[in-house]
Design goal:
With 1393 residues, this protein is an alpha+beta fold. It contains 25 helices and 73 strands.
Length: 1393
């Protein structure tokens, strides 16, 4: 079939149909009646052929692209057919007759993860007919789901979880998404779809660089399509730049058997989280894996720790080893730069000094002469003073040695290249450049043949007739005995000779040889193996050397092309294109031309079987008779092996034209031009004299190395000069000719003067010098930076070791002290406060003598009425309706402050101690009201009980205070007191600033001394004030302690078993130093010896007084006047009130000793006090005044050391609180009772979130009671708490609250230090909290007698009216006449009544 209406003008064949078995088809053809078939005849056969064969096309594009006018695409039947055979083909878009009407389909998204199921897929369709019967989406018939038609879109749901694996198994990750018509049951459209699997990626870079939506969770080390599954927000990686990866490192060299760390630069290194293992380096050495612990300095640096490596064998001197950095066991860090560690052995394959010193300088190998081996400097014994290394001034190897010379014979005329091999033959060419002699003759070393330390190649000079043989002698650098060597072999001078008839051909002796070459010729003679190089020529033709011996030289002749000595040849070499058949069968095709009786031949090059290119042969024409007309050769043809028919082609009109002739530019041969001017070459015969003038020659003109555009006429060539300046040679090429008319000088437009050139040269030279200086300075600075970095790393290592050692020693010492303390506790007991003092300190903090503890202070004439009023009021308080109305009315007042709410709650709970069941009922009602109010106000449920903002919350605190006293005393008190004592003793082991409260040992970053304080521990012998004759008591003191601190430590040592309230006060005692000479001296914080510098006055310390170790001191009652037993002169004493005025406190009285004092200038002199560190807030402090020049954050490691020392005591306290069994004492039922009540309230309000319930309970008990007890142990014990102890207890309390929280603590580099400090412990504490789920033992409520009568004064008339109004409106209050009873109370208590 032939298509004649195609897109191009030519007809196109688009189908060949075999219709008859054999023979031609006759012209007579006829259509069937229905015009669907064509009858075709041959001489023997009649065939019926359909006019179309549409069914052979399987796609719309194939169908409509065939051009068959009968065929179209039936869309919903998905077949190529005639229009009348397509059902409902007249309806729009059901039958396509043009390519642009084919159905197209796109899907969004076009890819999903294999772990995503039931995802909405939106398919955008084009040219799809109406689909009222419905449509299905299928994946290769493995999964089928209904499609929803919305306009031109079809919405489908991706396969379910159980179907995806089967689809991927059957079709891989790229199945076809198809649309199937419900009307026809046929698939009518399809598009590609991808199920991608992120989990196959096991590295961050391959994950985020995949073409799909994959994210890397760097803390879980997995690749996922769902970034929310990553543990931390900061752990999600989307781009390669954020991947943890090693950076390109310089060559990492590690000598074997040497302990050395490997430091690698990186970026985005993750910090292992709680429960995850640290970093490791894995080196795969000769198939075995070696794991080395690694240290992550920060996110951009990791170091493989000090370790030695080795590999087998001495035949490898440097072994590249694969390096992998992992963390948490098998979490690889990407290594895109393919960094490797190069292990090396200095001694491997370096048996001589020269081989050793020529090794890579970065190896730092050297020659140890004592051991006679190549090694590192640290492995060479110190007594061996002769250590040779390349960089040293004496880095020259002695004792060179010659092991071999080749050849050992040579002609006397010289020119022989002698190869000398040996050991220690210099490290640079200049070492041997002029010190080589062979048999007494100078032999000139050649640079190209020199191999440092191993080989010298030199060229022999001419020998004298008297010289016959000798040794090879060399000097390395200098001709001293230790640098000289002589060979053991002799070198001989030989006389070469040839036989008279020396040319041997394969068959017979002859001096003839074929012009084509290739003949093997043997030359005979004597000593023909002498010398190093052989060149054989016959005339001017070389003979290629093959082999030789003493008697023979064998070579192969080359082709001879000797020119005739007659007339010169007329130039040929014009390329000729030749066409023919089977030309590729000829091995050596040639073209020939015969002119004037002489034949000339040139070569041809076969391109393929039908084409070859030949160079025209030249003609021999006498230049004196050369005609300017064309010449024709007498014979012209081709030499194609033995093809005789093509030797002469006389029918070919092959014509030679006269050679073009060029003239020189001028007599000087130099043509001067301006830039852009054309170059004109004059001559003749530049255009061949052909009839019609259409023949042109192919000219090439080069100016220097650059070609130029050429315009040709008969007598001149016009060349557009290229963009050049200066002097250049002009060369014209045409055919096989080359001609140079001379030089062209193109002068620049504005040539520089000589001064300008000199100036530019000088400036360039200065610039180069400056750049070199900058590079040298940069190199030096880089070296200094590297040294600084190494020093810092060493300091970090030392610091880490120091911290670990300090922590270990401190813990051991503290354990000893705590053991002594425990022994003391067993003997004297823990100083618990009595119940009365305990409850008053918790209920009314800061008020030592509360009115509720005192008798009524009213005039006698009113006492009876007031007592009667109080009894009536007590009855009202015991009425639940009145009490609830009373509390609600009070809380509705704007003037009812937070302090007032707390006081009312404490007073009510004090009154109701004897009726705790009633108090509990009231408390539950108030808490229920508080929960309702909290939920109604749309506050977050977790905020309930967070702050004390209501009477109910304070009552709840007091309720736990009453009910948990026994538990505190029997169980939790001992670990709490041990923790307090441990903190106090640990803090006092280091310096504590008495002004700022900062300490060397601390858990709080705010209370840490961030500088190095030099101090010593002294042991003072203190006289017992109760019995001066008893043995002196040793007391550990620091020489940097103030006098007041010394007195407090002495009091702690003397009265360690006495409660704090029964001890003498340090302010009431003086410290007396009893010197060996018998003199006595009163030591004070301030006296006339106190130092003052720049308005700063420093408190006196033991170091100020220079008190030595072992001194005897005593505490004496404070004297009215000071004295000095040495000179009896009066010492000015600073009054206690003056010093105390300098320390101002804020807060309630109960916390006077636990707050940080503020520095206030002395009002008399304007000076500011300081002890160990000056206050940071004062602007006159200069940088560097705080001691160490290191950054202050370096001292944060002390927090870790202190935490490690106190860890056991914190664990003991938390375990006691979180446990349910305590040495026979059951956990009080009050906790279980209150927790059940909170669960009931949560159920009532449909709160089923376990986190909300847990938060309510945490805010109820840990936050409201335990945190208060931990931060304020003085509520439970008779102790003194200073500011540094208070800060440390606050950190422990915060850790306690974090342990009770259900929220996840996401920590980062900006997190508070106290949270980072216990980050790894909090998960363990949380497990303890979860285990405390039930309370097993019963609990019996207990009460104590009321502490005293409640006395209150109600003075606000408006408040009274509001309370009375509330009682009147309440039905139950009205029935019980509560308003009337309250009016009676008011009347009785009124002063005017």
């Amino acid at each position: 079939d032939i298509r004649v209406d195609g897109t191009t003008k030519n007809t196109l064949e688009y189908e060949i149909v075999q219709v008859v078995d054999s023979g031609p088809i006759l012209r007579d053809m006829a259509f069937s009646v229905d015009h669907e078939h064509l009858y075709i005849m041959s001489e023997k056969q009649l065939t019926r052929v359909p006019v179309e064969s549409c069914s052979q096309y399987e796609t719309c594009s194939e169908c409509l692209g065939s051009g068959d006018p009968h065929c179209g695409w039936c869309v919903l039947h998905n077949t190529c057919t005639r229009k009348e055979r397509c059902e409902r083909s007249s309806e729009p878009r059901r039958f396509a007759s043009e390519m642009k009407q084919c159905v197209r389909l796109t899907v969004h998204p076009n890819n999903i993860s294999v772990s995503q199921y039931n995802v909405l897929l939106v398919l955008e369709t084009y040219n799809v007919p109406e689909l009222s019967a419905g449509v299905n989406c299928t994946f290769e018939d493995l999964s089928e789901m209904d499609g929803l038609v919305v306009g031109s879109q079809i919405q489908c749901i991706s396969p379910a979880a159980k179907e995806v694996p089967q689809i991927i198994t059957e079709n891989g990750e790229h199945p076809t998404l198809q649309l199937k018509s419900k009307e026809t049951g046929m698939t009518f459209a399809s598009t590609s779809f991808v199920f991608y699997n992120c989990s196959v990626h096991n590295s961050c870079l391959s994950c985020v660089e995949s073409p799909y939506r994959c994210h890397w969770c760097k803390y879980r080390h997995v690749c996922t399509h769902d970034p929310s599954s990553c543990s931390f927000q900061e752990g999600r990686v989307k781009v390669p730049e954020d991947c943890p990866q090693l950076l390109q490192a310089e060559k990492i060299l590690v000598p074997v058997e040497v302990i050395k760390p490997i430091t690698l630069k990186a970026k985005n290194l993750p910090q292992p989280q709680s429960g995850q293992r640290g970093y490791e380096c894995i080196l795969n050495i000769q198939g075995s894996e070696q794991r080395v612990p690694a240290l992550r300095f920060n996110s951009s640096s990791v170091q493989c720790q000090n370790t030695s490596y080795s590999y087998e064998g001495m035949e490898i001197n440097s072994l590249p080893v694969e390096l992998t950095v992992v963390w948490n066991g098998n979490f690889n860090i990407d290594n895109p730069a393919q960094n490797k560690v190069h292990l090396y052995k200095c001694g491997a394959m370096r048996d001589s000094c020269g081989l050793c010193l020529k090794a890579d300088p970065d190896f730092e190998c050297g020659w140890c002469q004592g051991q006679n081996q190549c090694t590192l400097r640290q492995h060479c014994p110190a007594q061996d003073s002769q250590w040779l290394e390349l960089s040293s001034t004496k880095g020259k190897c002695t004792n060179p040695k010659i092991t071999d010379i080749n050849p050992v014979t040579g002609p006397r005329e010289g020119g022989t290249r002698v190869t000398i091999r040996g050991e220690n033959l210099g490290l640079e060419f200049r070492d041997i450049a002029s010190h080589v002699k062979v048999a007494g003759v100078e032999c000139k070393p050649l640079v190209e043949g020199y191999i440092p330390a191993e080989q010298i190649v030199c060229e022999m000079g001419e020998a004298k007739p008297s010289q016959h043989a000798g040794f090879v002698e060399i000097c390395v650098a200098e001709c001293k005995p230790e640098f000289m060597a002589r060979s053991s072999q002799l070198y001989y001078f030989m006389l070469l000779g040839f036989d008279p008839f020396c040319c041997l051909c394969p068959s017979s002796f002859t001096t003839l040889r074929p012009v084509s070459g290739g003949t093997q010729v043997t030359i005979t003679g004597n000593n023909l193996n002498a010398g190093s190089n052989v060149i054989v020529t016959f005339g001017r033709q070389p003979c290629l050397f093959y082999r030789r011996s003493t008697k023979h030289i064998v070579c192969n002749t080359t082709a001879s092309y000797e020119a005739s000595h007659g007339n010169p040849l007329l130039r040929g070499n014009t390329p000729i294109a030749v066409w023919g058949t089977h030309l590729d069968l000829i091995q050596n095709p040639q073209i020939r031309a015969k002119h004037g009786g002489k034949e000339h031949v040139n070569n041809c090059e076969v391109q393929n079987s039908t084409e070859m290119t030949c160079q025209a042969p030249a003609l021999a024409v006498d230049p004196n008779h050369q005609s300017e007309l064309a010449e024709r050769p007498e014979e012209f043809g081709f030499i194609l092996d033995n093809v005789q028919s093509l030797l002469i082609l006389n029918k070919t009109n092959f014509t030679y034209y006269p050679n073009p002739i060029f003239e020189v530019f001028n007599p000087s041969g130099i043509l001067e031009l301006k830039p852009g001017s054309p170059i004109i070459l004059k001559g003749k015969n530049l255009i061949p004299p052909v009839a019609g003038g259409n023949a042109k020659l192919n000219y090439t003109v080069l100016v220097g190395e650059k070609p130029c555009a050429v315009t040709v006429s008969d007598v001149q060539l016009l060349c557009e000069s290229p963009n050049l300046i200066g002097r250049h040679k002009v060369m014209a090429r045409v055919g096989g000719m080359e001609f140079s008319p001379g030089m062209v000088y193109i002068s620049p437009d504005s040539p520089l003067s000589l001064p300008a050139i000199v100036s530019i040269a000088v400036a360039g030279g200065l610039l180069i010098i400056f750049i070199v200086a900058v590079l040298i300075a940069y190199k030096r600075k880089s070296r200094e930076s590297d040294l600084t970095l190494k020093r810092l790393q060493m300091q970090m290592d030392n610091l880490e070791s120091r911290v670990a050692l300090e922590c270990k020693e401190a813990f051991a010492e503290l354990q000893t002290d705590i053991h002594e303390l425990t022994s003391d506790l067993d003997g004297a007991g823990i100083p618990f406060l009595d119940y009365r003092t305990y409850t008053m300190r918790v209920l009314f903090p800061g008020i030592e003598d509360h009115p509720v503890l005192r008798d009524l202070e009213v005039p006698g004439y009113r006492q009876e009425r007031v007592e009667k009023g109080l009894k009536l009021f007590a009855q009202l308080i015991n009425n639940k309706v009145f009490l609830l109305s009373f509390i609600r009315t009070l809380e509705s007042q704007r003037s009812f402050s937070m302090r007032d709410r707390g006081n009312v709650a404490s007073l009510i709970m004090t009154v109701l101690q004897s009726k705790l069941e009633y108090a509990t009922d009231v408390l539950k009602q108030l808490l229920a009201d508080l929960i309702d109010k909290n939920l109604e106000s749309k506050n977050h449920p977790k905020l309930l009980l967070r702050r004390t903002e209501s009477v109910a919350e304070k009552m709840l605190t007091n309720w736990f205070t009453f009910l948990l006293y026994k538990f505190l005393k029997e169980c939790a008190g001992e670990p709490l007191f041990s923790l307090f004592c441990a903190i106090k003793q640990q803090m006092e082991k280091g310096p504590i600033d008495s002004i700022t409260g900062e300490a060397r040992y601390s858990l709080s970053e705010d209370k840490l001394i961030r500088q190095q304080i030099d101090y010593k521990t002294l042991v003072l012998s203190c006289v017992n004030p109760d019995n001066v004759n008893s043995p002196e008591i040793p007391v550990k003191i620091l020489n940097c302690d103030t006098i007041t601190q010394v007195k407090e430590k002495i009091l702690d040592a003397i009265f360690k078993n006495v409660p704090c309230s029964h001890r003498p006060k340090a302010a009431d005692m003086d410290l007396e130093w009893r010197q060996a000479s018998g003199a006595r001296m009163i030591l004070q914080d301030e006296d006339i010896t106190t130092k003052i510098e720049n308005d700063w006055k420093r408190l006196n310390t033991l170091a100020h007084y220079q008190v030595p170790d072992g001194s005897v001191v005593a505490l004496v009652s404070k004297q009215v006047t000071a004295y000095n037993a040495v000179n009896n002169s009066t010492v000015s004493r600073t009054s206690a009130s003056k010093y105390e005025n300098m320390i101002r406190y804020t807060g309630s009285p109960d916390s006077l000793r636990s707050r940080t004092p503020m520095i206030t200038p002395d009002l008399e002199s304007g000076v500011k006090m300081w002890h160990l560190v000056k206050n940071h807030e004062h602007g006159d402090q200069k940088e560097g005044d705080r001691g160490s020049k290191m950054v202050s954050e370096i001292y944060l490691t002390r927090l870790l050391a202190t935490k490690g020392t106190l860890q056991k005591f914190v664990d003991d306290l938390f375990e006691t609180i979180f446990s349910t069994a305590h040495r026979g004492s059951a956990l009080p039922l009050a906790i279980k009772y209150m927790f059940d009540f909170l669960d009931e309230q949560a159920d009532k309000h449909n709160i089923h979130d376990p986190h909300v319930r847990h938060t309510w309970k945490s805010n109820c008990l840990p936050l409201r009671f335990w945190v208060n007890m931990i931060k304020n142990p003085q509520f439970v014990f008779d102790i003194h708490k200073n500011s540094i102890t208070d800060a440390c207890l606050s950190v422990v309390a915060q850790t306690f609250m974090d342990s009770c929280s259900t929220s996840e603590h996401r920590l980062g580099k900006d997190s508070p230090s106290n949270k980072l400090l216990y980050a790894k412990d909090i998960p363990s504490y949380k497990n303890w909290v979860e285990r405390k789920s039930t309370l097993l033992c019963c609990y019996k409520f207990w009460t104590l007698d009321i502490l005293g009568k409640k006395k209150t004064s109600i003075t606000s008339s408006s408040l009274l009216f509001q309370i009375l109004g509330a009682l009147d409106q309440d039905d139950q209050a009205g029935k019980q006449k509560l308003a009337y009873k309250l009016e009676q109370v008011i009347t009785l208590m009124s002063i005017d009544s």
